[in-house]
Amino acid sequence: MNRAFLVAVFAVTAVLGQQRSFIACPIVRDTKTVPCFLAEYEGETYFLGIQQDITSDFHPPQLKHEVLVEGRVASDPRAPRVCGGIPLHPVSVSVIKEVNLACNTLLPAETGIEAPPAMRGPGPSSRRPEPRAAHPALSGRQEFTILYSFNDDYLEYAGNQVVSDAAEYAKRIHASSVKVSGYRATSLLSNGQRLVEKSGLAEKRAQNIATLMRGLGVSNLTVEWKAEAEPADGSTDPSSRRVTIAVTP
């Protein structure tokens, strides 16, 4: 067999070996500051995130529900553990709607295991106001992307910000057309199983965003969706669960 081919195969295998996509019960570990959230897969423990406020990129999962974890192990094998788990970055955590009463593990605080610093407190009253970063001046055709958890059409805080930015831009340039496109996706698990988002979800996502855009005063708006689920590759699957807003001058 060609040596170059073998090298390429081993290289791809090494990269894919860093990907993790699995369903597990979330684990809550108490600390002296904020709770940490972990998950176990094939005998290893992975760090998912910490409790913060709603503006954080990570939203804590719920006990009594399994989660779909999709992420990448840090490339440096010497990277320290966080809260006793291997960190995944980036990581996407989606709550499975069905109740699983077995998912109820709470670990006590332990000496030597601490949560990373929280940029924001876990409640609204403790949140320190942070100015939004200034956006570069936009011009021409722009596409805005809203991402979703698996099998969900709930719009998170970050998604609301994207919708607001898209509406603001469309109105500022008096857009000739605004096209909202919805998608649903497939997730490839590390064990080879494929999970497909439910039928009709792409339309629901798109229609929800279109309603918000109209409510924000956007006109010349069209809505479309792709009924077939996007294919999975086990690496970029979370980015396929989306709605795009294409704004054309």
Note down, in words, how this protein is organized.
- The structure is a single chain.
- With 249 residues, the chain is of the alpha+beta class.
- The protein has 2 domains: 3-126, no CATH class; 142-248, OmpA-like domain (60s Ribosomal Protein L30, Chain: A), CATH 3.30.1330.
- It is 18% helix and 32% strand.
- It contains 3 helices and 13 strands; from the N terminus they run H-E-E-E-E-E-E-E-E-H-E-E-E-H-E-E.
- Strands 1-5-6-4-3-2-7 form a 7-stranded mixed beta sheet, with no helix packed on it.
- Strand 3 and strand 4 form a beta hairpin.
- Mean pLDDT is 88; it is low at 1-16.
Fill in the keyword field for this structure.
249 residues, alpha+beta, 60s Ribosomal Protein L30, Chain: A, 2 domains, seven-stranded mixed sheet, 3 helices, 13 strands, disordered N terminus
Offer a concise description of the structure.
By secondary structure, the chain is of the alpha+beta class.
How many distinct beta strands?
Answer: 13
Uncertain spans: 1-16
Report the average pLDDT across residues. 88
Largest sheet strand order: 1-5-6-4-3-2-7
The coarse silhouette is globular
